[in-house]
Structures are given as C-alpha cells and as structure tokens.
Amino acid sequence: MLKTLDRYIIRQFLGTFFFILMLIMSIAVVFDISEKTEDFAKTSASVYEIAVDYYVNFIIYYSNLFSGLLIFIAVLLFTSRLAGRSEIIAALSSGVSFPRLMRPFFIAATILTALSLYVNVFLLPHANRTRLAFEKAHIWSTYKLEERNVLREIAPGEIIYFETVDMAKLTGYRFSLEKWEGGQLRSKLMSDRAVYDTVAGSWQVHDYLIREIPPDQGPLGIEQAGSVIGEDEVMPPERIRRGALLDTIIPLKPADLGQRLAIAQAMDRTEIAAFIKAEKARGGSTVAYYEVEQKQRTSYPFATYVFTLLGVGIASRKVRGGTGVHMVLGVLLTLLYIFTMKMTTVAATNSAFNPTLAVWIPNIIFGIIGVWIYWKAPK
Predict the structure, then answer these.
(1) What would the pLDDT profile of 263-280 be if each residue is shown by its tens digit?
(2) Which of 55, 203, 225, 374 could form a disulfide with 237 if both were Cys (CB 3.0 to 4.6 A apart)?
(3) From residue 164, how far is each of 172, 174, 205 by CA, in Å?
C-alpha cells in the first residue's frame, strides 16, 4: 500500500503537471485564436466546428507534443520546492533511502507514460484527422509538390514518371509509363501532360505516343527489324501509335505522388504501417519521415521516465538560488534534448540513418545522464 509520503509526492507531481498543462494550453489557444482570427472570419465554419473540430483536437495534439517538457518542469518545480523546505533532507534523515524516495516519482511517471502511450497510439491519430481535415478545408493553401522527376512503381514492372506535378491543377508534365517484363522494356507511353479526372478516377493523357516493343528486340527496345531469327523469319518491328487523348486506368492518385507530411499524424498504427509498405514499393522519397513518426509514438512516451529521473536528480539538492538555479539547468538540458532529437531525426529523414535508432538515441543518452545525476544526488 502507498504510504502518506508516496501519496503526497504523487499528488504533487500529477497536480503540478496538469496545472501547468492547463495554463500553457490556455495561452496557446489564445495566441492561436489571435493568429487565425482573419482566417476564421473568412471561413464558412461554424463556431461549433471551430471550437470542437479544431480547438478540442488542437489541445489534444499540443498537450501531447509538449508533455515531456511540461513533465520535466513540473518535477523541477515541486521537487525544488520540497528541497527548499528541507522536506527531502527530513525524509532522508528519518531513514528513507533515496531509491525509496524515488518510488512515488516513478509511479506517477508510469501513469503519465501509460496515458501518453494511449494518446499517441489510439486517440491522437483520430484527433489529428479531424483537426487536419478542418485546416485543409478552412486554413491551408493549395499543397505544392516540390519534388521533381517523380518516379513511382505502381505495379510490378510498371513505372510511372512525371517531370513536374501541379497539385492545384491535378496535372503532371512530361509524363511516361513504362512496362517491363523479364528485365526488358515492352511498352512505353509518353505524353506532354496527364490530367487526373476526379469524377472518373482516371488519368487523361494528352498528345500521347505509345511504343510497343517486341520481346526479342532487347531490353532497351533498339530497332532490330530485319535481323534473321531462323530460316525465312525476321524480327517484327516495334509499333508506334499516336493520339490526342487517352483515358488510362492507372492505380495512382495525386495524393500518392505527394501530400503534406503532417498527414502522417492522422494515420493510426495500421494505416501508417500499410502506407510505409506501399511507399517503399513505389519508391517514395518520404518513407523515412513516416517511419520516424511511427517509431516516435512509442519512444516519446518513455521519455517521461528520463525527464523524471533528470528532474529529481537536479532539483533534490538544496542549493543557493533555489528553484531558479534548478530551472536554468533544466532548460539547458531540455534544449540539449530537443537539439539531439532534431539532429537524429534529420539524419534519419535525409541521410538514411536507422529511424528506430534515431528516435531512441536521445532517450538513451539522456537516460545515461539521468542515471549519473541520480548517482551523484544525495542518498
């Protein structure tokens, strides 16, 4: 059973955290309203949609995003207050060991970790789906695909290419579709532009040319007409067809070519796993970003233990300057943690660094630092 000291520390930990969370979220909502007032005035969204569809889910998203930092601040504040009032010294002097004193901190941290895991894995994707749908309908401008020379494998042996894509017009320029069999090019459809028909769900190819290459003409389709195969046999020439307009049934939507990376936040664990698998098959360039998003949903909640260990180790020592000194040290460590996390995630998304290692390295490094601070803390 929990003793009085345990209940007191857990109550102080959770109470301080949720108080700071409500305070920060209230400030964030006020600032966001002031920034988006003009957008809301122009939109057709009702007050209910703005309040429920957007701001309720806005609070869920940013509460989870800042939870690690706020947990750290909460631990620093109330632990520093305990140290300043000599309550920690009194507990240690009465025979309570420092590891025993840590137990209620980690009970509270476990509660917050379990809550964060639930939010990250189950609640947040659906909240983000509603919030991002609202932003797409009422706030966002048209998405622009910056990527050039877009290649996607839409089926085994079928490769589609766009030199550029205008997402606003749902139009791709310098389009081609190649079909390969056994390492040999069998046909190639080329066009100056292809337009996606949202009603029919198909691509309309304008001013097209189709080359159909016989199997025995080699992997690059080099003209070999007239070459002798056997007695009185010659290889057939390739066929070329031209036309003004062609409807094609291509299993590819404009969203498959590119979309806002924030959409990853709206996918649940099954959807993001399927999307990553499909993107790898198509040769998408943003696979690493989605893998980082997938792995962070597990790694980030466990940072609660790291921040708790760091916070207690720093703030449990009574020092001249009190809470102010503890907060400065805490802010410096937080900035270093965020910097390390950014470095590793950028390495994963841009330099083929392993995404799992990228999201866990900050926890490992600062967990080791936390263990060292804990070892140096008063016993």
Answers:
(1) 778 888 888 888 888 777
(2) 225
(3) 6, 7, 15
